[in-house]
Amino acid sequence: MPQKIASTNIPRLAELTGIQSRDIPAVWDSVKGFIQDGLAEGESLDAILERLTAKTCQLYVARDGEEIIAACVTELPTIGGRKVCNIISVGGSRMDEWVHHMETLKAWAKSNGCVAMRFPEIRPGWKKIFPDFTVTKITLERPL
Length: 144
Known about the structure:
The protein is α+β, with helices and mostly antiparallel strands. The chain is about 25% helix and about 25% strand.
């Protein structure tokens, strides 16, 4: 009788792909929901699309085969004399399959002269996922 093999909970790992600006229209409908979910307050999806096609931002997608399961938008501004990699938006499903690619983005940012990676505005829950990031600013808000 064949031995029964226990199933594992090890996730399949998604592939990370940088999208060239000319190819953004082909994937836009598949990623815009993920991008919208991760945008900071006051950011517009239309403005992000414009910045991506103008090559002032970069788009990365995580794929499981042909299926896009996450998207990330970055930019490389110089702030206070330091070049940084801002993660403007990140969102998707099945996070355990793509979150490890933060290390890939870190290496890419470093190779492009960045001295830090930043989430300019992000929900506090992300701190649990990225404990090696330091909180540098907070927003206080009170309903009126």
